[in-house]
Structure formats: structure tokens, C-alpha cells
Amino acid sequence: MQSQIVEVEGGDWRELSSGAGWTAAVEAGKVLYFPSLGFELRPGERALLRPEIRDPKSRNISLNVDGTLKGAAGDEATQRQVAEMIGRFREQAVSLITRLFPQYAQVMRLAPTSYRPMQVETRAQSWRADDRRMHVDAFPSRPNHGERILRVFANVNPEGAPRVWRVGEPFEDVARKFLPRAKPYVRWQARALRALHVTKSLRSEYDHLMLQLHDGMKGDPAYQQDAPQERVEFAAGSTWICFSDQAVHAVMSGQYMLEQTLFLPPGTEYDPDASPLAILTRMKGHALVDSPGR
Ligand code: SIN
Ligand code: FE
Fold it and tell me: Mind listing the pLDDT tens digit for each residue in 61-117?
């Protein structure tokens, strides 16, 4: 398998700008890796890098779009410091995307920013929630109707531990393997899920198929072991970007990461034909989301 990782030199957040095929690469589902682009901690923030900073009742710490903090433990001053650190990362992540992909900046919608202080290796989870299995991101309760999931990650591990991922084969190859095994979409079931508030809006056929790919991959041990894949170490002090609804990924080890999600309306890519929605639509031969107004 051709490597799905594209390395980009440069260690200054303000000096990077669009160019050199990065747009085509990221829209082909590759991971853009900036090995020397680090998120710099301020004095005092090193103390925030400990697992107890997370409220044990929450999976992650997150800074909402309105600036409120969720999931952190500690007194008010500590929480303010956590919010400030995550907020600074948000600004840098947004400005990086704006520089690299100016067209996205016009249309992207900010999602909460997360800080993940937990050690990946020791987390016990059901197979479906286990991100150590290769998958593409798809949300069971939040249908997105083809909206894209663009993510910026920064490894801030203070002891130099890398964040280790497995990155899998191109999206189209995955779809070719798992679409034939996918359960058919049933409209009345999607309506029932909405009525029962299992989903926040109607699960479209696109959302259904993306979940089928997600579950199909995670639930197939032979695929996990034998499918084309590469092991990637994202160094402490590095940053990487991918469309996580398209790049096949799994996290194997690491601790302390910041992550920013940006949503892009369907069809606003530089090349909308390269998107998972376009690929699945071509394969199925019919529209997978309702056109606006229907
Ligand atoms: C994921 O998006 O599957 C997890 C990524 C990570 O925690 O490194
Ligand atoms: Fe994921």
C-alpha cells in the first residue's frame, strides 16, 4: 500500500500556507503530518498534564464553542487555566486550517475542542467504542448528512511519548469490501430512531452506510489484523490533520493530546467528487441524502 502519510516541514504556525498538493492529499483521505509543528505550553501549563485533571465521570475534557469547559476536575483557577490552554490550541488549529485551506475557512463550523489526558493503552471499552480498532469516524446519534469531519491533532506528551496510530487503506477500498456486507437502509427504522430520540435528526442512508462501514471494520478481527495498514508514530511536539470520516485510523498508544474538530458542509471541498459521500453515491447509484428542501 502506498503510504497514506504526507509529511510537511516547517515549525512555525504562522508561516505555513496553502500549496504543494496538500489539499488533494487531505481530500484523498491522507494524513498531513507536521513533525516539527508543536503546540507550545506556557509556564505553569505543564502541571495540567496529569490524568487526574479529568473528571472521572467524563471521557474527555472539552471546551465548548461558547467557551464553557466540560469534564475537568480541580478548583476554579485550575479550570480557568485548562480552558485557556485549550482555547489557545483552538485558535492555532483554526488559523492553521485557514492558512492551508482558505476555502474551508469560509464555510467551516467549529465543534468543541478536546483535551485527552488519558493513556490510550489502558482504556477498556466495548468493541464498537474501541478506537484501537481501525475505523472511519461516524456518529450513531448525530447524523451529519454528508457534512465533513476535519480534525487537527497535537501530541503534547511531556515525556516524549509518541501517539501511535495505525492508518489503513484508502476509503474506496474499504467501501468496496464492506458495502456488499452492509445491512440495507430502512427508512421507517430511521424515522423510528428519530422518534425515540436515539438520533437527533433523521439518519440518512449516507449516515447508515458510514455506520455500517465503521461497525463492519471494527467488528472484523481478520480485517483488523490483515488489511493494508501502516504504523505511524506522531512524535511528542507534532501536529497532524485528516478527514477522520475518510482516513482509516486506529489509536494504539499515547497520552496527552489536543484535538480540534471542524465541520464542513457537504460539497464545499475543493474536489467534492473525492468525498465519502460522492464515493458511496457512485457505488450505490442513487442519492444517499435528501436534497435541501425535501
Ligand atoms: C480516534 O479518533 O479514533 C482517536 C484518535 C486518538 O485518540 O488519537
Ligand atoms: Fe476515530
Answer: 999 999 999 999 999 999 999 999 999 999 999 999 999 999 999 999 999 999 999
In the chain, the amino acid numbered 133 is R
Show the ligand 1 pocket: residues with CB < 6 angstroms.
Answer: 116, 131, 163, 244, 249, 251, 257
The DSSP code for 2 is -
Residue with cell 489509536: 251
DSSP characters over 190-222: HHHHHHTTSSSSPPPHHHHHHHHHHHHHHT-HH
Of all helices (H) and strands (E), which one includes residue 171? helix 171-178
Query: Domain 5-281 carries which CATH code?
Result: 2.60.120
Q: Report which protein residue has its CA nearest ligand 1's atom 8.
A: 251
Return the domain boundaries, the chain.
Answer: 5-281
**pTM exceeds 0.90 for this model:** yes
